[in-house]
């Protein structure tokens, strides 16, 4: 395409459309887990990318970490037994968009 501006706008629209499609098949999951059980959860968590893991800010939450990740909706129900066993404070959101920006430079 000769017009660079139009080419970039088409790429932007494509990214947005892909983001809506990807989000419709995904869930964003937040949960807390004891550090000693972290590897057990991570082994069972079918995440889009490696999850974000951070220590809880409250000092009396010793040994607990928070996990934030994106999973496929189709895998969520099969995770319930593992999450029930090792996790606490599970929060699930349906994202509006997940933009695969790294794929569209």
Automatic annotation (TrEMBL):
Compartments where found: Cytoplasm
Keyword Magnesium attached: yes
Listed GO MF terms: ATP binding; ATP phosphoribosyltransferase activity; magnesium ion binding
Gene3D superfamilies assigned to the protein according to its UniProt record, in alphabetical order: 3.30.70.120
Name recorded for this polypeptide: Histidine biosynthesis HisG C-terminal domain-containing protein
Main location: cytoplasm
Coiled coil: none
UniProt-listed GO biological process terms: L-histidine biosynthetic process
Lineage of origin: unclassified sequences, metagenomes, ecological metagenomes
Alphabetized UniProt keyword annotations: ATP-binding, Cytoplasm, Glycosyltransferase, Magnesium, Metal-binding, Nucleotide-binding, Transferase
Domain Histidine biosynthesis HisG C-terminal, residue spans: 23-92
Transmembrane segments: none
InterPro entries found in the cross-reference section: ATP_PRibTrfase_HisG (IPR001348), HisG_C (IPR013115), N-reg_PII-like_a/b (IPR011322), N-reg_PII/ATP_PRibTrfase_C (IPR015867)
UniProt keyword annotation of Cytoplasm present: yes
Cellular component GO terms held in the UniProt record: cytoplasm
UniProt-listed NCBIfam families: HisG_C-term
């Amino acid at each position: 395409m000769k017009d660079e501006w139009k080419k970039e706008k088409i790429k932007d629209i494509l990214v947005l459309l892909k983001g809506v499609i990807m989000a419709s098949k995904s869930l964003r999951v937040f949960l807390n887990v004891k550090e000693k059980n972290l590897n057990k959860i991570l082994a069972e968590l079918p995440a889009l990318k490696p999850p974000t893991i951070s220590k809880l800010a409250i000092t009396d939450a010793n040994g607990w970490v928070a996990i934030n990740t994106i999973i496929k909706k189709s895998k969520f129900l099969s995770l319930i037994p593992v999450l029930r066993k090792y996790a606490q404070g599970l929060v699930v959101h349906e994202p509006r968009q997940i933009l695969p920006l790294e794929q569209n430079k």
